[in-house]
Amino acid sequence: MQTVNIHQAKTHLSRLVDQAANGDSFVIAKAGRPLVKVTALDSVTGDKVRRTGFLSGQIKVPEDFDTMGSGEIEGLFGGMP
Prior knowledge:
This protein is of the alpha+beta class. Helices cover 27% and strands 19% of the residues. Strand 2 (26-30) and strand 3 form a beta hairpin.
């Protein structure tokens, strides 16, 4: 595993990040003392990440959804407006 000093890391950050993203981790050191290890994240990318609308077409919201249970709720609160 490659070790680079902080000055080298600042100077060549883009190249080093690309290198880490491709699986070749490296260590950043200050005054010869290792401080951090830079490595690629194991994250899902591309089409696999999809949250909004993931149940589209699988559920149906009733037309009276906004007023469902309104009578029971009014009864619980004594008919207060």
